[in-house]
Structures are given as C-alpha cells and as structure tokens.
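QUALITY CONTROL LOG
STEP: pairwise intake check
CHECKER ROLE: data steward
CRITERIA: each record must contain a sequence immediately followed by its structure tokens, with no blank fields

ENTRY 1 OF 2
RESULT FIELD BELOW
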Amino acid sequence: MSLVLPDIHERWPFTVAHSRWEAAISEESTAWIESLGILSGPRMKTFRAANFGDFTAIVYGHFTDARQYSVACDLVNLLFVFDDLSDELSAQDARTAATISLDALRNWKMPRVAGEHPVGEMHRRRRLHFISSADVLDKFMSSYDNYLTAVIAEAEDRDRRTIRGSLDSYLALRRETGAVTSCFNLLLIPYEIPSHILRDSRITHLERLGMDLICVGNDILSFNVEQARGDTHNAVIVVMHERGLSSQDAMDFMGVWYREKVEEFCSAMRDLPSCGSVHMRDQVKMYVTGIANWVTGNYEWSLRSGRYFPAGEDPLRSDWVVPLLESSKL
C-alpha cells in the first residue's frame, strides 16, 4: 500500500535563511552531547546523521552573533536527545527525569550528584545564562517547566495506551511537548521587545499559529514512521480515531487543515501591533520572521534529515507518494 502526503508548503512564501555560523559552531555542540555519554554508539551515529546543526542554522538563521547561535545549537541538540529518551520512559521515569532536568537548569552553578542520570548534566549547560536578559531567561524557564510537565502527561497517555479524544485536546498537549514556546523564547535574545507588545493578541495569535504549523507539520511528515512503531502522539492518528477515518483520509484532512493555517499565518504576519517607533517595529518584524523561519526549517529539515524518509524515498521526487509502512495495531 502507499500513502499520498499533502504538499503542505505549496503556498508557503517564506524561503530558507541559513546561519553563517553552522560550520564553525555546530560540531562543537554535537561533541558536547557526545561527551555526556547519554547516547549509545549506534544512537550517537543516528544523532549525528540527523544533522541538527543544519536544522538550527535555518530556524535561527537571523542570529548574527556566534554566541547566540551556540546557545541555539545547544538547545536544539538537548531537546532532540531528551525527546528521543523520554519517548521510551514510563510516566514515573519521565517524572524523575523532568525533576532532575529542571533542577539542573535552575541550579546550573551546582555540580550534579555522582551517579545521576546524565540528563542532569546536559541541562546544566551554562551558555544560555550568560547571554540572555533576565526577562528572556524567566520566560524560558517558565516555558521549559511547562514542556517537562507535558512530557510527563504524554508518558501517562502512553502508559495507559490512551489516544487523545479530539484534535483540540491533542493540540493543547502537543504545543507543549514540542517545546516550541521555549524555542521561540530564544528568538527574543537579540531584541528588547517590551512585554506589553509580546502580550498583544496579534502577537500571541501569530505565535500560536506558528506552534501549530510546526507541530502538525512534523506530525504529517513523521506519521508514516510513527504509526509503524505504534506511536499515538500524532495529529493524523488522533484524527483517524476521532473521526473513524482511514490513514489516507485523515492525512488529507490534516493537509487541508494545515493549508488553512498557512493562509491564516500569512494574514497575521501583515497585522502586527503599533510599536511606537520604527526601531521597535523592526525588532518585532525580526521576531515574527524568526517564527516563520522556524516553520520553514521544521519542514525543510523533516524532509531531508533522513529521520522520516530513508535515502531513495524523497517524497518530492515521487509526487508525495510514499510506501505505507507496516504498522503496529493502533
């Protein structure tokens, strides 16, 4: 059997931006992950092959400071490692890992306890604390706490073999398990945008749309491999069960949903709040452009990283038709 994927970026107008710092810095961050011993030999090889430095170079392509790109590399590498590890944890073990991680992030000056799981040391990485303003750091800490809470909730669903009952319910959790808010917080590092502007409904609406495009875009492109291994934390799978649809019909439904969100996002990009000065408006434009870069980068990297499409199965070359992998029972 085959599966026809929707061409979700057929009308996406934002092109790829790329950081000039990738070649100089991404390997250093990858080597840091390797030094922790958190991944086995084969898993480290897979991690390297995914080329998260390339991903970071796109989604933080507007960073002009090498230190900012270094912090972004660290976060992206950390999140992908933690996501893969937590996917295999029970709720109890996820709760323990989350507690260790948050404590290490908050108490980064303190050495970790001998024998502790290396996620503690991984979250002790210091560079974020040296370049972020207090406001950005506070936002990041709060967002990351929400992310870890959502990871536990996902593990609880997994333990109970529960599939979220509706797309809305699923997205409420998925926005957090993707850690996208924390990633957006880093976009603010180069700027000094007042809180009242960031709280404006036009900005928060655009942020929400960006989160949904990132999370659902990933779900659409990763669906085949995730359904094959029996994962259920995926929008396509939720819609299959919510509406009693086949995998193809659910994929088509999510493709239409995604394209509608693209149109809404593009409209929101043209409706930014009044910022009081040209300088501040330029900063806000750069921030929301960073959100668009994240959507672009998520899509581009998902297609070419090898994580979801093996060599020789480029969906762009097959008119979006891919072999439907044999799946575990959902």
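ENTRY 2 OF 2
RESULT FIELD BELOW
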Amino acid sequence: MRIRNLNTFLTVARLGSFHAAAAQLHASQPAISARIAALEEELNVQLFIRDKRGTHLTSRGTQLIPYAEKLLSINREMRAQLADDSLERGTIRVGIVDTLAHLWLAKLLSTWHDEHPLIAFELIVDTTSSLIEQLKSSELDLALMVADEHPLPNFVTEPLCSYPQCWVACKSLDGVEKINSLEDLSKFQLLSFTHRSRPRQYLSELFRPLGEQAPVIHSCSSVPSLLSLVEQGVGVAFMPEPLVRSGIDTRQLVAINGLPKAPALNFCCAWRLDDDRILPRLLADTARKMIKNQQ
C-alpha cells in the first residue's frame, strides 16, 4: 500500500474535492483520480461517491480515515528517526531478564547506541513477572523477557529467541556420574531460578510425584551467582544451555544426560499496545537480528 495514495485519500476527504486536492498536492486531477482508484482496487472497496452535490466519503471511506492517519503518522516518525539531522533524543527504559542480560546485554547496548547515539538507555534487570507489571504501569518502554504461554492483553509481543534447558554439575561433584533417573537426582541439592520463573515451575511439576522424596531446590535470581554455585559443586543446576556452554566446553562442568528432556525456554520482546512510537519496535528488531546472527 503506497503512502502517497493514503495521503491523497486524506487530502480529498478533508477538502471534499478531487480538483482542490490536485491543486494542493501539485498534481493533475487525473493523477489524483488514478491514486484513489488504485487504493480502492487494493482494498476492494469504494471510498468516495461523486455526484452533483460534490465528493462524499462512503461508509468504508469513513472507516479508513483513522487507519490512514495512523499509517502516515508512523511513516513520518520513521523518516524523522532515520534522518541524520533528526536523531531522537531522550531516555528509553528497557527491562531484561537476567539470562538475556548475562548473554547479550553488553552487545545489545553497544549496537543500540550505534543506531541511536542520542538516546540514553535506562536498563532494568528483573524477573519476567516484575517486568510485566512494570510494562503495565508504563515504568518500562520495552521488555526482553520469557515468553508467556498465553497472550498478554494490551501488549505487543514478538518472538526473540529460544534456548534448550539442561542439567549440569561440577565435574568434581561426588556421585554425579551415577545420575540416571529422577530418583538418583533427588539425592542431590538442586539449583535453579526463583519460584515464579518458568524453569523453577517446571521443576516443581517434575518432582511433584515424588512427594516427600523430592529434592531440595535452592533458588537464585542472579545468573552469575547461580553459575558460581554450580561451579563450586554446591549441587546440580537446571539452566538454559547457553549459560553453561563454556563451562561444558572447558570440562569444568558436565551435562547430565538420561534425565527427562525439558521444553525449550522461549523469550520475547514486549511493549505496550497503546505506545505508537516506532522506537520500541526498532530496538526489538535490532535485538532479534543481532541474537540470530551471533548464535
């Protein structure tokens, strides 16, 4: 759909005349008629009625006005933000869960700054549930978080990345090589994220059938602290695989196979539906492309 045709439509609708619109847009009247005809053909509706009384909007034409105005507004904002002499200033508040912060925050901030050099970023590292509440209260402009299993009303959510989850332990942890079942695993202390996190909820459901025989699960909201605990042999950790990949590669940590395979942990970008700025979407698109290209 061509922006020029939408602009022509709004001009004709405002002036109530193809002739007046042609004069204002510095175009011939046949050119104006051709643009409207192309838009009508694309939408498969009639937008204007022309009779002896003049030019009038149809009901479909009236319905189109707010959408056309919004598209033109987005187009103007996009051009302004991309123009070298119209760089946006100000502060944008971005929330991010600790897993993504540990893996990507430095590269994300560097890339975002290169693209928007006059924007100051206020970065909040928190749990998904807290980030959702901060989005709802307009304390955040954008959140990079664990994707919810159900649609979030009043939010735009778009996929960001997905990571497998795995069981790992320090190679020197006594008896780790003998773990082949949940019953074996229950003899060890387990390490994972906080109670409201998706990995922790998975563990609760996984061990529910064991009742009182279920293992003790220690929770920690900090990825660096969680990694330190597992590296020091405190217990067996259940974490997204990229967080422990380097430890496995250096053989400081060992992946435990033979246990139930957990579902992948999906992440998303989210912002408020009533936020009509293009910047949150641009930042989300940059994050998705950067993570995809570097995985």
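INTAKE CHECK: passed for both entries
DESCRIPTIVE NOTE, ENTRY 2: Residues 3-81 form a domain with the Arc Repressor Mutant, subunit A fold (CATH 1.10.10.10).
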